[in-house]
């Protein structure tokens, strides 16, 4: 006689198998997984966005102090020293914020790397092409940012050196001009690289929305 207990075990096994198959058939598609990853990337870059306005404000204040120092000249050395020390504090604040910004971008980069496996699962040829292009653009964006970060850190080092020099009463005009020239050259490179980074960011955002639309994910552009 067929054992009822064994029959029950077989039914349970078949039920579990059926549920597993359903999960495989109706689970998130590769496109949906990519969407989840890309939106997580947006969240991880939140701290990056928060640093932008404070950084600009610090740069503005520092520029104002520098102009005050130049207007004073070395005839009012004590005031120059006071302002130079204040400027160093602002530079250090900028450095702290740019480091926080960097950590935010690197966290998003780590998360973004997980889409490699998800892209490999895309079967539609056109979607696969869009996903690969999107990844290429984002990789270029991260590379541009890392170069931008290095240049910005170099400019911070040069700024600190400048304000330290300004606290020396025997500072020569030649040394001051040479340091200023190095700073200007570095900041020119910073602006150029920042422009490149912004270009890749804009391109990536457009390609991301194009991918969402092609995958019929019904995502509004305001969700970026």
From TrEMBL:
Family matches, as Gene3D superfamilies: YkyA-like
KW Coiled coil (keyword) present: yes
Q: Which ranges form a coiled coil?
A: 105-148
Which keywords fit this entry according to its UniProt record? Coiled coil
Q: Where is the signal peptide?
A: none
Against InterPro entries, the record matches this protein to: Lipoprot_YkyA-like, YkyA-like_sf
Q: What is this protein called?
A: Chromosome segregation ATPase
